[in-house]
Amino acid sequence: MLNENSTPKAANKGRINILLVDDQSANLHVLEAVLAELDEVLVSVSSGEQALRELLVREFAVVLMDVHMPTMSGFEAAALIRSHPRSRTLPIIFLTALGDDRAHMEQAYALGAVDYLTKPISPVILRAKVAFFIDLYRKTAEIALHAQATHLEALRTRDERIRLILDNTRDYAFIGTDTDGIVTEWEGGAETITGWFAAKACGEPSAIIFTPEDRAAGVPEHEMRTARETGRADDKRWHVRRDGTRFFADGVMVPLRDEADKLRGYAKIFRDATSERLAAEQLEMSELQLGESRQRSQRAEEGMRRLAAVAAQSSDFIGIASSEARTSYVNPAGRRLAGLAPDAALGEYRIGDFFAPDCQAFVEAVVLPAVRGRQARWEGELRMRNFQSGAILPIYYKGFAVFDDDGQNIGLASIMRDITAQKQAEDELRRVAADLAEADRRKSEFLATLAHELRNPLAPIRTGLDLIRMAAPGAPNMAKVHDMMDRQLGHLIHLVNDLLDVARITRGKIELKREASDVATLAAMAVETSMAALNAGGHTLSIEVAPEALPLEVDVTRIVQVLSNLLNNAAKYTPAGGRIVLRALREGDDALLSVHDNGVGIAQEDIGTLFDMFTQVGRNLDRSQGGLGIGLSLVRRLVELHGGSVSATSAGRDQGSTFTVRLPLHLGNAPAVASLAPCGAAPGALRVLVVDDNVDAGASLSTLLEALGHSTRVAVDGEQGLVLAAAFRPHLAFLDIGLPGMSGHQLARAIRATSGLEGMLLVALTGWGARADVAMSQQAGFDRHLTKPVDITALNSVLAAAARPGSSPAMEQP
Q1: Cα distances (angstroms) measured from residue 701 to each of 447, 469, 691, 710, 712
Q2: What SMART domains does this protein map onto (predicted)?
């Protein structure tokens, strides 16, 4: 079995960590075996201290912790876990062998435990609980990933806006360098101002634009040092273009540091101020004030031009209004959002007119006073209207006041962003959360039902074993006990098979074995399968099959399973002595098979969810008939795989119900129905080898074979099995696949390669029964593949095949 310490790192990708804490290695091995089929990373430690260290270095979906440990109890370890912010909400399941001690249970739940289980623990329940927290962990991670994607999208939008600003701000050069002053970015007006194209400049030292005398004096290095040490370095000096002409740069250099305050490079921002510099030098002595005023004016005009360029390129609504809220400017995107024509007279509109009627009073009473007042700004979610279409849009609004140099309010600015997509995403998240909550509720109901359904057959089986153990040899009524245990074991197998079928269909792993058949044959087979349930309830069954041939091409086993499920369902929900009718007729190119009963009926509000997973026909406790609520879901999925459909109708409670299956007819030749020969009696005495590491399983099969008159040998691993095979030379060998050391597949290959054992019939006897498992057995040299538990009919079939001289049967799965 794989655990965290034996699994390569590459195999852990996408798997979830589960922490197992127990000072007894045997208990850890049991937990690892129970949880192995979840295929997650199992981290096993033997003390609370080790558990705390593991929690510091990795994340876990759930912790299974023993209560009583020598140095630090499970409760003490849990208290320390809860004290750390990282593991404050980590699910903890306490395990104990001391029974349901109420004080301990209260202490466990006070520490935030999600469950408190008493040993011995049911593997099915434990796996189900752990699987729930794994599923919850994954869904939480998916939500986090969705939030991260939303954040990254916002960053991408911001980067695009920055790119637009850089591309449309040609008067300023934006230069980025690494820590050594090598150019990495050459943006904005850098090419226009310096004459260096970005492709040529990137990779060169930023000193290429400095004059030779400044380079000789170490000015570029001094500028970087000043920026690094003080946070900025003013850049007002003469530079040189690529063609040798000079220009005066007015800008600044700043260091670029990451979140850890580590230096990553420098950013240099400047503009071509040659004309201003020349004018300033000419008029510096005589017109200093005039020159400074002109420069301020020019910078202001350039700032307005840049602001207008940015507003024109923005996808948001950007508007300017007077201090009285009368609109004077709206950018192109804002006009489109508001449904205004390009030549619309903006002066006719006030700020409040752009909002939905139910928002206008709030804007006038709250928003505009806040923007005009001391706060000078307001932002939040509002609703905007489109003048042309009348549509109402959710928007995020930012409003702020615009002041002149004297601090006077000269206008109001508005920025509005359409957040329709964001709102839809939020609604979708709420819907997903509701769906998850419903799925969680139904899963909890299913787990409770599963526990109930498993206990029902286990209780009489355990009682039967006690009766057999206590009874004297030859005691009467043992046959009834055997029959009872056989029925309950069959019920358990039926539950497991239904679960496996649903799992295979859900994962798309089920394959149909289509063959020619007809409705009458399928109906007869289904009635035979369900006769025990019908007789148990004392029901009257009527079969009404159309006299004409109704040929089908279907997986016979699966369609018989569908009809048998419907008949069993009718028997289950019909009071004793009820009437059940199985009908089959033709409608167009389809065959209609229906099962009608006069039982408890179905309420109209339940019809819509009747075929959903974990849904039962009757939910009232006084009518509960058991079952996992997957039978009808399995029926629908199997019928849909055949290209058909299934429906249910009922007049209401206690009015009976009708289930109808529609399947497409195979309008070719009528199928030839093969006759089934009964299984022969058990063959003569054989030498049989049984290899199974489960001692009880091997011993019980050996006892059964000897009761049938055969001679047996039993091995518990592959190496012992190979030695016994060479010495015993059996006619037949039953090999488990999951053997320690040498696997069943390896043992089969070794037997096939051993001289003198060529004629031995090899049978794989395992709990794995998928098509891929059968194929692997065939490749390993097995003649048959049986899944546990094997019934006496399949066992006699294999024994008969082994008794036939020179038999070499084709690979099959009885």
Answers
A1: 32, 19, 10, 11, 9
A2: HATPase_c (SM00387), HisKA (SM00388), PAC (SM00086), PAS (SM00091), REC (SM00448)
Give the pair of three-digit tokens for residue 721: 């099995």
Give backbone dihedrals phi and psi of 329, rounded to 5 degrees, phi first.
-150, 135
The CA distance from 316 to 418, in Å, is 7
Q: Which residue has the tokens 């079939």?
A: 797
Residue 362 confidence (pLDDT) above 90: yes
Return the structure tokens found at 579.
């009437």
Q: What is the mean pLDDT of residues 729-757?
A: 91
**What does the CA dihedral 164, 205, 249, 189 come to, rounded to 10 degrees?**
-20
- 264 phi and psi angles, rounded to 5 deg: -115, -15
Q: In the chain, what percentage of residues exceed pLDDT 70?
A: 79
How far apart, in whole angstroms, are the C-alpha atoms of residue 355 and residue 336?
Answer: 15
640 is written with which tokens? 């849909």
Q: In what order do the strands lie in the sheet with 317-321?
A: 327-330, 317-321, 409-418, 392-403, 377-385
For residue 203, what is the DSSP state?
T
Contact 770, 793 (CB under 8 A): no
Q: Is the peptide bond before 120 cis (omega within 30 degrees of 0)?
A: yes
Burial of 749 (0-12, 13-18, 19+ CB in 10 A): middle
Q: What is the pLDDT of residue 347?
A: 82
pTM value is 0.37
Mention every residue, 6+ apart, whose C-beta is less than 8 A from residue 751: 722, 725, 733, 757, 760, 762, 781
